[in-house]
Design brief:
By secondary structure, the protein is mainly β. Helix content is 6%, strand content 53%.
Length: 290
């Protein structure tokens, strides 16, 4: 009985403290893709421009995904074989649910990577940012010692990388053409968020990022349950999630922000998608809705 009780408590703690996925991407046709660790033992959803919600993949441990060229979406899967981790890279298309490509790749943890418009893959290996060409060739993009890598994103000619532990939360912006660091946003976290989803300080983290049509950077912060908008080096809260929800990802659809939220009470909730237009929230879908 003691062994069974210990096993139950261990599993309960693992489930309670497991983190959600933060992956969200939008294709050129307006299809929105979402990663989800809470349903079907890990899944990927897509929301079509006509509002149809479709389960694309099941039984996959996916944290993030990115839109690439010609309607392709790249999905990084983390595989665990007795605590020995490897990565799998999936390539999907927006006009079908078929997996058209699957390969092993040295994506850092299978979760934190970025894709540019030419399908070049960026990830962190040791103290370097590496770029992997579609041909399979690999070279060093930039050198940096990250403390706690969070998320990566490409927009235009910039690569954005967030680090939860560097200088109290930092986002680095690199020039894709040169590999040079062009801007750093730091000291981003509040000392003590007033209403965090979880009490532990290490759960106050940076998650999804996006850039709007004006080149303005946005970033999601779990601890404050908010999305930040950066005007220069000044961050402004532009979106606030209500308890028990908090934002983990953001994209822009026709210039309108769409926020990926998850929640937690005594169990994990969501994910759900919220369109934020003229200070009005519209729920596009909620996977836990009856």
């Amino acid at each position: 009985m003691k062994i069974l009780l210990t096993l139950f408590l261990t599993l309960h703690i693992m489930v309670a403290k497991s983190h959600p996925a933060w992956g969200i991407a939008i294709a050129s046709d307006g299809t929105i893709w979402v990663a989800d660790l809470m349903h079907h033992h890990g899944s990927v959803w897509k929301l079509t421009p006509k509002g149809q919600l479709v389960t694309v993949l099941k039984n996959v441990h996916v944290h993030t995904l990115h839109a690439g060229s010609k309607g392709k979406v790249w999905v990084g899967e983390l595989e665990d074989y007795n605590n020995t981790y490897s990565s799998k890279l999936w390539q999907l298309t927006t006009n079908s649910n078929k997996v058209v490509h699957q390969t092993k790749a040295e994506v850092s943890w299978g979760s934190t990577f970025a894709i540019d418009e030419e399908d070049n893959l960026y990830y962190v290996s040791g103290e370097t940012i590496v770029v992997r060409k579609p041909s399979g060739s690999v070279k060093i993009f930039a050198t940096h010692s990250f403390q706690r890598l969070a998320t990566m994103m490409v927009h235009g000619n910039s690569l954005y990388v967030s680090d939860n532990n560097a200088n109290n939360g930092s986002i680095y912006q690199y020039d894709l053409r040169t590999g040079k660091l062009v801007q750093t946003y730091s000291q981003l976290f509040l000392p003590s968020p007033t209403n965090p989803p979880f009490p532990e300080p290490h759960t106050n983290i940076l998650m999804g990022m996006a850039v709007d049509n004006n080149g303005t950077l946005y970033a999601c912060n779990t601890g404050s349950r908010s999305v930040w908008k950066f005007e220069g080096h000044k961050k402004i809260v532009c979106y606030q999630s209500e308890h028990p929800w908090y934002p983990v990802g953001i994209v822009f659809r026709k210039g309108i922000p769409v926020v990926l939220e998850v929640g937690y009470t005594t169990k994990h909730l969501g994910p759900r998608l919220v369109e934020w237009r003229n200070n009005t929230k519209t729920i596009l879908f909620n996977t836990d809705a009856p």
